[in-house]
Amino acid sequence: MRRDDRDDPFDDIFSEIERMMEEMTGGVSAAGNAGFGSDAHVSIYETDDQLRVVADMPGVRKEDIDIKCDGRHVTISASTDTSDYEERIELPARVDEHSASATFNNGILEITLDRTGSSANIDLD
């Protein structure tokens, strides 16, 4: 969505709306570059012991998905014949990245991660 009304008093407002829409859709433009990035929806569910990241990824095959975790962020990447997708999700709590498990069924990716303590104890010598 691009506007050419340079003298429009609402141009700044429309520019901000366009910026926010592109941010929400992962930079997908109205020019037709929309793959599943515009359809992807990510939710995070918390319990006392775990975090669960659930992503809707229509049109993606399991073998096209790559998941990485550094303890504070989960990055989900996928490539199809028509599009590429990558999303870096900041987690609400620190997790043990080595505890992660993931399932993918009918276009729904679910990642389960164990929470870790907020800090480590350091022994003083």
Helix content: 10-25%
The counted number of beta strands is 7
Structural class: mainly beta
Q: Walk across the major sheet and give the strand order.
A: 1-2-7-6
N-to-C CA distance:
62 Å
- What is the overall shape? extended
Summarize model confidence as the mean pLDDT.
79
State the CATH topology of the largest domain: Immunoglobulin-like
Order of helices and strands: HEEEEEEE
Give the helix tally.
1
Q: Total domains, how many?
A: 2
CATH class of the largest domain: Mainly Beta
Largest sheet: 4 strands, antiparallel
CATH architecture of the largest domain: Sandwich
Q: What low-confidence regions span 5 or more consecutive residues with pLDDT below 50? A: 28-38
Q: What percentage of the residues does DSSP assign to strands (E)?
A: 35-45%
Specify Rg, calculated over alpha carbons: 19 Å
